[in-house]
Amino acid sequence: MKKLLSLLILTGTLFAQANNIFTLNPSVNSAGMGNVGIAHADVKNVFHNPAFAGLKESHYEISHIKWLPNLTDDMGYQSMLHTSDMGWSGEIFYFDYGTQVEADQGGIIIGDFESASFRMSGGYGFGFNDWLVGARLNFYHHNFVDDIDIGMNYGFDIGAYKEFGDTSVGIVLKDVGGDTEILEQTLNLPMSIGVGVGQKFGNFTLASDVKVFEDYNSIGIGGEYSLGVASLKAGYYTESEFDIDYFTIGGGINAGIVDLSLAYYYNTDSFHNETLMISFGFNF
What is the pTM of this model? Predict the structure, then answer.
């Protein structure tokens, strides 16, 4: 489905929201739990907390999400994640806006074009006095229209995690860095501070995240029940300032080397309905 978005781009409306693309959650493992991951220790949640690279597990993962399928059929994002047994992590996140129809200021269609945004990240985590701490350097870039030059931007994340018996706590400062210059506009990164709390009850884990951005807050709460090689997940996520909320369900299979995660966003009154997420990974 081609989208008449070029007029929005030319007026800067799309540009004004471009950096928010980088707040989308590429971790399918956490998506089924209401996008909760700051205090849920797993290398697959290193997007939420760079300290989890300090778990020192070798993991490779590829994720695919078809974004907003009720609105369009050619928009989505992919990510590739790698964590090492030496505490390093790396990720590539690629958001494809799909094929769009280009029009001039008078609304006359003059052709098609492709648009995309991507982030490349590298981080390191380690243990320190019963804490896990970590940091990650991110590079961001947008490619909207060929004749519009948008430079690469940078930012960093820092995080910490600690367990107190069956209770876990995490704190993260994300997307701290430079500005993006687009069409004489200066766009700030969506800097946020997040706090997560988790509690284990045998095979069941309950966790919640609160993230505070400049213009809005987000809250997620979710649970995971472990069945050994498999797990079941459910949760709820909301951004009240933007009237965004949805329930999530998910699950995973970790059969030694092979790892599979699934998640589904559900809200019959929201454009997030019928959003399915899947990731496939390997553990070494």
Answer: 0.88
Q: Which tokens go with 205?
A: 């884990």
User: Which structure tokens are listed for 268?
Assistant: 């019959």
77 and 26 in contact (C-beta within 8 Å)?
Answer: yes
Q: What is the pLDDT of residues 55-95, one digit of tens each?
A: 999 999 999 988 877 777 788 899 999 999 999 999 999 99
Contacts 24+ apart (CB under 8 A), 169-172: 169/39, 169/195, 169/196, 169/197, 169/198, 170/38, 170/39, 170/48, 170/49, 170/51, 170/194, 170/195, 170/196, 170/197, 170/198, 171/38, 171/195, 171/196, 172/38, 172/48, 172/49, 172/50, 172/196
User: What span, in angstroms and rounded, lies between the C-alpha atoms of 215 and 250?
Assistant: 29
DSSP string of 62-101, one letter each residue = EEEEE--TTT-SS-EEEEEEEE-TTSEEEEEEEEEEEEEE
| Residues in Cβ contact with 96 at an 8 Å cutoff, skipping those fewer than 6 apart | 74, 75, 76, 77, 78, 114, 115, 116
Task: List pLDDT tens digits, range 5-45.
Answer: 443 443 344 555 677 889 999 999 999 999 999 999 999 99
